[in-house]
């Protein structure tokens, strides 16, 4: 009885859902809420990461500094030992993890901002740390994706992407998305329980500037319903759960846009790192913390 | 599940059914879409395809309709239906098995095997994961990947079980919405394989770049494909485009380039109802000059 009723419901409603569902960016944009400046005077900002309180950490790659943005908007220095760390994210252990390009290491920061390598001798760009402790990071030098297991075992899990740059998981943490900076695609992978990746697919096609096939794609984030946000030359491209382009949020300034993440006490601000500055804007959706 | 939730679901279901039933009286099913006494029924079987190389990791259901008049000594024609689960149901928007039974019996279309294919889904590997829905990727993407999936993977396998035609003249492909543009794309990319296209409320819009077709059709050398387009004036106008305008552009481009086409603009929204009710006429037009269509009135 229950099953047949569910089937009836599915048969009746499924076509409408399949056919008509769309997620225009008008659903997430708040009238009158544009980009606002959070921090400036840096060289090349990257890696915005959100902790359990909604506070944001970001790096200034060339100066090897990491800054913290409090809920009051105050910016303070967290670490000056980052050794050109580019990507940042908080783990389930509430520790900050990063990709040190200078040290060729995946690092974990203690509460005083001191890094400890958890993987050495790696080419790394950006990373994601899942709640189960699995780390995935992009290696743009070799066009590869690596898994660093909770036991700190390093394994190559994907290859053949021209310039893998940004990396993020779906909100369920069972699917990985990687952006190709020198191509047009976002690549999706199913994450197997052993940390390997399956069913690689160019699930989404990004818009590129006229006369270019390079998206300029970099950092990514996801919101609660699974939209994927990716920084590109044209702005923050937003994709729906079927991999379709929903729209493009304008860049905060005419400069390189490196990364985005949701933060704030209610997780409803999109923070963006762009060259010398960090911005944020309030949206009508909320982000997802990977360190659940 | 609690009793309350079930009651709520029933209420939602009834409300959901009442609206469309009241609103959709304009397009009614004719006798060829209804069971008629003395008309032999074809056989429908359900299958699953899970080892695609072109769409790795996808799983999908598909159905095969074999008309009662099928003779394994004689190659049957083939018609593909995208979003096949909706087309194959006798109480669905198009009632294809009923229509095929009636038209083949009357000699208004040739003996044709119907192949009804659902879009792929890539399930998560770990429990609790969200499946990756592949419909938009498969249907809205331009290029030959879906045609190759049919031609290189699925149809050869079905061809082992049934004697299917080797000629493009005997192959048609049909779909609605994204399945409509998918049908066109398959024939556009492989006119050597598909010669007949039916699209209801086709998404010739910018979901994944399909809005470019009218421009391309006008400049490309004409291809040997026949196209039926159904559209409704209340169809979608959203971030991807305006469906009624997009279909008018398609029709105008096909007209300009000298194609054998038909365009019907009704008043429905994004629904298969209008296309479904006129499916007998569409099929008769589509197959009108096929050598195995003895009694075509078109």
Question: Could you outline the blueprint of secondary structure elements for this entry?
Answer:
The complex is a heterodimer of chains A (292) and B (298).
Chain A: H1 2-20, E1 36-39, E2 45-50, E3 56-60, E4 65-69, E5 75-79, E6 85-90, E7 96-100, E8 105-109, E9 115-120, E10 127-129, E11 135-139, E12 144-148, E13 154-158, E14 164-169, E15 175-180, E16 185-191, E17 197-205, E18 220-222, E19 228-232, E20 235-239, E21 245-249, E22 259-263, E23 269-274, E24 277-282
Antiparallel strand pairs in A: 1-24, 2-3, 3-4, 4-5, 6-7, 7-8, 8-9, 10-11, 11-12, 12-13, 14-15, 15-16, 16-17, 18-19, 19-20, 20-21, 22-23, 23-24
Chain B: H1 3-23, E1 43-49, E2 60-66, E3 77-82, H2 84-88, H3 96-106, E4 112-117, E5 121-122, E6 132-133, H4 135-140, H5 145-161, E7 171-176, H6 178-189, E8 196-200, H7 213-219, E9 226-232, E10 237-238, E11 241-242, H8 243-256, E12 260-266, H9 273-277, H10 279-286
Parallel strand pairs in B: 3-4, 3-7, 7-8, 8-9, 9-12
Antiparallel strand pairs in B: 1-2, 2-4, 5-6, 10-11
């Amino acid at each position: 009885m229950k099953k047949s009723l569910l089937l009836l419901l599915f048969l009746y409603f499924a076509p409408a859902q399949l056919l008509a569902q769309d997620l225009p960016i008008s659903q997430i944009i708040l009238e009158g809420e544009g980009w606002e400046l959070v921090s400036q005077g840096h060289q090349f900002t990257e890696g915005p990461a959100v902790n359990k309180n909604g506070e944001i950490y970001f790096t200034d790659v060339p100066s090897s500094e990491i800054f913290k943005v409090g809920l009051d908007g105050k910016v303070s220095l967290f670490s000056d030992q980052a050794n050109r760390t580019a990507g940042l994210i908080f783990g389930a252990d509430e520790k900050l993890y990063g990709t040190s390009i200078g040290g060729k290491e995946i690092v974990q920061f203690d509460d005083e901002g001191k890094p400890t390598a958890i993987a050495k001798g790696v080419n790394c760009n950006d990373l994601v740390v899942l709640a189960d402790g699995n780390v995935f990071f992009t290696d743009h030098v070799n066009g590869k994706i690596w898994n660093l297991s909770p036991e700190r075992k390093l394994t190559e899990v994907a290859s053949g992407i021209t310039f893998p740059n940004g990396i993020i998981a779906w909100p369920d943490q069972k699917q990985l998305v990687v952006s190709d900076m020198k191509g047009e695609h976002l690549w999706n992978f199913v994450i197997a329980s052993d940390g390997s990746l399956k069913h690689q697919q160019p699930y989404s096609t990004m818009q590129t500037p006229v006369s270019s096939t390079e998206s300029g794609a970099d950092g990514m984030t996801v919101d609660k319903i699974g939209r994927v946000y990716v920084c590109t030359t044209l702005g923050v491209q937003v994709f729906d759960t079927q991999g379709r382009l929903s729209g493009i949020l304008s860049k905060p300034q005419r400069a390189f846009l490196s990364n985005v993440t949701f933060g704030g006490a209610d997780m409803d601000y999109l923070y963006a790192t762009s060259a010398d500055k960090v911005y944020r804007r309030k949206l009508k959706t909320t982000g997802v913390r990977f360190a659940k | 599940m609690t009793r309350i939730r079930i009651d709520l679901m029933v209420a939602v279901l009834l409300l959901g059914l009442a609206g469309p039933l009241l609103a959709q009286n304009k397009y009614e099913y004719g006798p060829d879409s209804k069971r008629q006494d003395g008309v032999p029924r074809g056989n429908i079987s359900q299958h699953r395809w899970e080892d695609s190389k072109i769409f790795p990791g996808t799983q999908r259901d598909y159905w095969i309709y074999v008309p009662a008049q099928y003779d394994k000594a004689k190659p049957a024609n083939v018609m593909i239906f995208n979003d096949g689960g909706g087309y194959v149901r006798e109480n669905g928007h198009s009632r294809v098995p009923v229509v095929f039974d009636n038209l083949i019996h009357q000699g208004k279309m040739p003996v044709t095997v119907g192949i009804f294919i659902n879009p792929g889904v890539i399930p998560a590997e770990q429990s609790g994961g969200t499946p990756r829905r592949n419909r938009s990727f498969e249907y809205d993407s331009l290029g030959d990947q879906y045609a190759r999936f049919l031609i290189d993977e699925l149809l050869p396998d079905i061809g082992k079980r049934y004697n299917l035609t080797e000629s493009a003249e005997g192959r048609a492909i049909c779909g609605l919405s994204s399945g409509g543009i998918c049908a066109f794309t398959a024939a556009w990319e492989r006119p050597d394989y598909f010669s007949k296209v039916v699209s209801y409320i086709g998404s010739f819009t910018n979901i994944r770049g399909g809005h470019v077709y009218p421009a391309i059709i006008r400049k490309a050398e004409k291809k040997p494909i026949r196209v039926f387009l159904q559209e409704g004036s209340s169809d979608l106008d959203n971030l991807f485009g305006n469906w009624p305008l997009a279909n008018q552009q398609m029709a105008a481009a096909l007209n300009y380039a000298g194609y054998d086409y038909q365009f019907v603009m009704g008043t429905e929204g994004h629904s298969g109802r209008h296309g479904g009710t006129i499916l007998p006429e569409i099929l008769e037009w589509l197959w009108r000059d096929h050598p195995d269509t003895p009694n075509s009135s078109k």
